[in-house]
C-alpha cells in the first residue's frame, strides 16, 4: 500500500479519484528554505527535505513501505509563491496573477526499498482579469489559506482561466499520470 506522507487533502482526493489505495500520514514540515534559487530547484529541495524529516521521525515504521512525498509551488515569472501567511500577502500574490499567467510546479518522490522515482511537472494557467468582488470574497473568507500561491483551480481561479498548458492534476498538487506509471 502507498503511504502518502502529506497532510494535503487535495493530494488525498487526487489519489482517491485515481483509485490508488493509500494511507495518509500527516506530519509537520518546516518549509523555510532559501527561495533565492530557481523555482524548479526550490520545489525539488522541499520534497527532499520532507523525505529527510519524515524518515528522521518514522524510519522504522515505514522502511518496507512505498512512501510518496510531494510539494507544489506557484511561480509568476521568477517569483516563487508559497502559501500566504495572511490576507495582505494573499492580495499581493493574487495581484501578481490578475490578468496574467502563473505556473504551478509540482514535484514528487516515490521511495521504497527497490527504487526512487523523482518527478517534476509544470502546468501554466493564463488568467483573465479577476472580478473584484469575487477576489474580495475569496480572500476575506480565507479560502486562499493552505493553497500554494493562493491558487484554487477547483474554486476561485477556475472561473478566470483562459488557457491551461499541462495536466490538471499537476495544478492541483500531484501529477497522477506520471505517478501511476511507477506504481
UniProtKB/TrEMBL annotation:
InterPro entries: ITPase-like_fam (IPR029001), Maf-like (IPR003697). One of its GO terms (biological process) is nucleotide metabolic process. It comes from the Bacteria. GO terms for molecular function: nucleoside triphosphate diphosphatase activity. It catalyses: a ribonucleoside 5'-triphosphate + H2O = a ribonucleoside 5'-phosphate + diphosphate + H(+); a 2'-deoxyribonucleoside 5'-triphosphate + H2O = a 2'-deoxyribonucleoside 5'-phosphate + diphosphate + H(+). Its cofactor is a divalent metal cation. Pfam families: Maf. It is found in: Cytoplasm. Keywords: Cytoplasm, Hydrolase, Nucleotide metabolism. Its EC number is 3.6.1.9. Its main location: cytoplasm. The active site is at residue 71. Belongs to the Maf family. PANTHER family: BIFUNCTIONAL DTTP/UTP PYROPHOSPHATASE/METHYLTRANSFERASE PROTEIN-RELATED, BIFUNCTIONAL DTTP_UTP PYROPHOSPHATASE_METHYLTRANSFERASE PROTEIN-RELATED. Nucleoside triphosphate pyrophosphatase. May have a dual role in cell division arrest and in preventing the incorporation of modified nucleotides into cellular nucleic acids. This is Nucleoside triphosphate pyrophosphatase.
Amino acid at each position: 500500500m502507498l503511504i502518502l506522507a502529506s497532510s494535503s487533502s487535495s493530494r488525498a482526493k487526487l489519489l482517491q479519484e485515481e483509485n490508488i489505495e493509500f494511507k495518509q500520514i500527516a506530519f509537520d514540515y518546516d518549509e523555510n528554505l532559501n527561495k533565492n534559487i530557481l523555482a524548479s530547484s526550490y520545489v525539488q529541495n522541499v520534497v527532499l527535505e520532507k523525505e529527510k524529516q519524515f524518515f528522521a521521525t518514522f524510519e522504522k515504521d515505514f522502511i518496507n513501505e512505498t512512501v510518496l512525498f510531494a510539494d507544489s509551488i506557484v511561480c509568476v515569472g521568477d517569483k516563487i509563491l508559497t502559501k500566504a501567511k495572511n490576507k495582505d500577502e494573499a492580495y499581493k500574490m493574487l495581484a501578481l496573477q490578475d490578468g496574467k499567467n502563473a505556473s504551478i510546479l509540482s514535484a514528487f518522490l516515490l521511495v521504497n526499498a527497490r527504487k526512487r522515482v523523482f518527478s517534476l511537472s509544470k502546468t501554466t494557467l493564463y488568467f483573465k482579469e479577476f472580478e473584484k468582488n469575487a477576489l474580495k470574497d475569496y480572500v476575506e473568507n480565507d479560502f486562499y489559506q493552505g493553497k500554494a500561491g493562493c491558487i484554487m483551480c477547483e474554486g476561485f481561479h477556475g472561473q478566470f482561466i483562459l488557457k491551461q498548458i499541462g495536466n490538471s492534476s499537476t495544478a492541483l498538487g500531484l501529477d497522477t499520470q506520471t505517478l501511476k506509471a511507477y506504481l
